[in-house]
Amino acid sequence: MQLKHKIVAFGILPLLLAVAVVCVLVVVQNQRLGEQQARLIESSILSSKQAELKHYVEMATSAIAPLYDSGRNDPETRQQALAILERISFGSDGYFFVYDKDGKSLMHPHQADLVGQNMWNMTDPDGLPVIQALLRTAKSGDGFQRYDWQKPSTGQVSDKLAYVIMLDRWDWMFGTGIYIEDVEQAIQQAREEVSSGIRTTMQAIVAVALVAVLLVFACGMMLNVSEHRLADRKLQRLTQRIVTSQEEERSRVSRELHDGISQLLVSVKFQFELASQQLASGDARAADTLRQGTERLVAAIGEVRRISHDLHPSLLDTLGLPSAIGQLVSEFQQRSGLSVDYRNQLGDIRPAPGVTVALFRVLQEALTNIERHARAHHVEILLDGQARQVLLRIRDDGSGFNPRQADQHSGGIGLRNIRERVEHFGGQFTINSTPDGTELSVLLRPEPAWKDADAPEHLPQ
Prior knowledge:
Helix content is 61%, strand content 16%. The chain is of the alpha+beta class. The chain folds into 2 domains: 3-185, PAS domain (Beta-Lactamase, 2-Layer Sandwich); 314-458, Histidine kinase-like ATPase, C-terminal domain (Heat Shock Protein 90, 2-Layer Sandwich). The strands form 2 sheets. Strands 1, 2, 3, 4, 5 and 6 form a 6-stranded antiparallel sheet that branches. The chain has a 5-stranded mixed sheet with strand order 7-8-9-11-10, covered by helices on one side. Helix 7 (321-336) packs parallel to helix 8 (353-374). It is rod-shaped.
């Protein structure tokens, strides 16, 4: 995966994760609120139903109160009370029922076949012994009991809420009930509304997340295009600098060959031709002419070695970095007349060839800049090595300069190309300059992270 794709992925994935977490929290919270709302609706409806049932029972109690309060317990009085309760009804399914303390049905207006039967062990579809539960509730004084019972208008078994009381002197339990399937309907409606709200909220979140993802993707594309353009411009400038540097290097080598080696070889040619003529004529000066030609040939050979050393110091391959730096320092002292203090603390560390060349080129460029611009008198060079890094530090007592301005406007390699060479190896490059002097430090790993150790030599020279 390319870096730009990773950046876009790392920008979108946390957003999607956050949206998923928000969705889960919204669903859980809405479900919790939905259940609370359903319980509140159920509690509110049941409270109103309970008040309604109490009212009906109080009305029925007042209807038979004259008979019950008369103090009579004869069967005729009881039968009159049952007849009164049997005639009282409300709605299509509202009626009163009466049982004795042993669970025997004494009156049921809609299920006459139950009258006279002992219902003590009768259970509803959920296994609840209905009559026993009603008797316990009536004796406890609470009076309210839920159970399943056949609804007269439909013949279907439905959830029912009953309110019963005890007539202790007659050993009766009587009461009434209301079928409360409408409570379940209201609760189900509330839950459906909550589910609909959750779906609407989820759709809104998904829409917002989709817009956010598209924005992130669009910003990533814009950033990618911008980075591509910037990289193209940098690549064009780097390519132009490489071409310019190559042409400058070729021009320098051409001048070295023309002004140095070529002239020396022409001079040698003339000396040897003169010596040939002198030998042919028996001139005694032929030996001296040959000696001068040989000296000039030796000078030409030395010039070839110098140019070769500038292109790639052979000591780097034979004796290593410390010796190559030592020779470079010696030549710099002879050429510039500056005092140089060189300390080699590299020890047994042998950097990779690419790292060695990079350090040598950095020192070579630094010494050239000191000779041309620093107006220094003394230079200190430190080569230090540890297990994981190699340090090259160059310090001079010159007049100093502005590193940022020099980096932006320098030609050739300059500080910018030195930095690119160091960064190519994943190293660190720092430079500090004051009116009292300049210090340049380079930290490189002995072994580069990439395999092609000779790659830095393809940078501009």
